[in-house]
């Protein structure tokens, strides 16, 4: 990210200088061709000397570029939420915990091997316990390798047969498992909460499971989610861990003004 931003910042300065050169050439067409090589050397020297004398300008340009990219990214994600909102919030291919009829929905895209997802689970659990009107949607987004995919397949199959409370118990148990999580750990967690294991192992490889995981991956792509955890609340989509206090504030804002940020 920084390397690309630096390149863009340098291109910005060179473009300005080149623009000045073109303007000069346009004003003096008889000498433009003769002086083009010389002008290029002079422009490069001017840019080089200016940046050496004022290196803070590069940082300012990089920071400004980052701000503009964040604004553009947020707008793209908000548009995607608007286009796919119903599938994000109400798809049958997802787990719903908390209050299924709650007045505010918090959506989390997660990977069972994601350390930040494991940390975020405590916040989600606390929100559910403290807020009886909160609806939480859990979407398996396995991006950390084959073991994550297998764990997601087990979880998807478990969701097909477990009620909301039992699935939440399974989900918390699996995310609380220490070390790497794969098929065996997921199967063990499912067995502990009383899942029908022969049915679960059959459902793991079913067309329904494949379709459910594909749907989440497609949504994540539309939302430009490239990591976990990722969240959707209202029209806002966020990538990365969000502290409990911020999630709580966004939920309260949804009730107050219908937006995550009032």
TrEMBL record:
<dbReference type="InterPro" id="IPR017937">
    <property type="entry name" value="Thioredoxin_CS"/>
</dbReference>
<dbReference type="InterPro" id="IPR036249">
    <property type="entry name" value="Thioredoxin-like_sf"/>
</dbReference>
<dbReference type="Pfam" id="PF01323">
    <property type="entry name" value="DSBA"/>
</dbReference>
<keyword id="KW-0732">Signal</keyword>
<keyword id="KW-0560">Oxidoreductase</keyword>
<feature type="signal peptide">
    <location>
        <begin position="1"/>
        <end position="32"/>
    </location>
</feature>
<dbReference type="InterPro" id="IPR001853">
    <property type="entry name" value="DSBA-like_thioredoxin_dom"/>
</dbReference>
<dbReference type="InterPro" id="IPR041205">
    <property type="entry name" value="ScsC_N"/>
</dbReference>
<dbReference type="Pfam" id="PF18312">
    <property type="entry name" value="ScsC_N"/>
</dbReference>
<feature type="domain" description="Thioredoxin">
    <location>
        <begin position="69"/>
        <end position="256"/>
    </location>
</feature>
<keyword id="KW-0676">Redox-active center</keyword>
<dbReference type="InterPro" id="IPR013766">
    <property type="entry name" value="Thioredoxin_domain"/>
</dbReference>
<protein>
    <submittedName>
        <fullName>DsbA family protein</fullName>
    </submittedName>
</protein>
<keyword id="KW-1015">Disulfide bond</keyword>
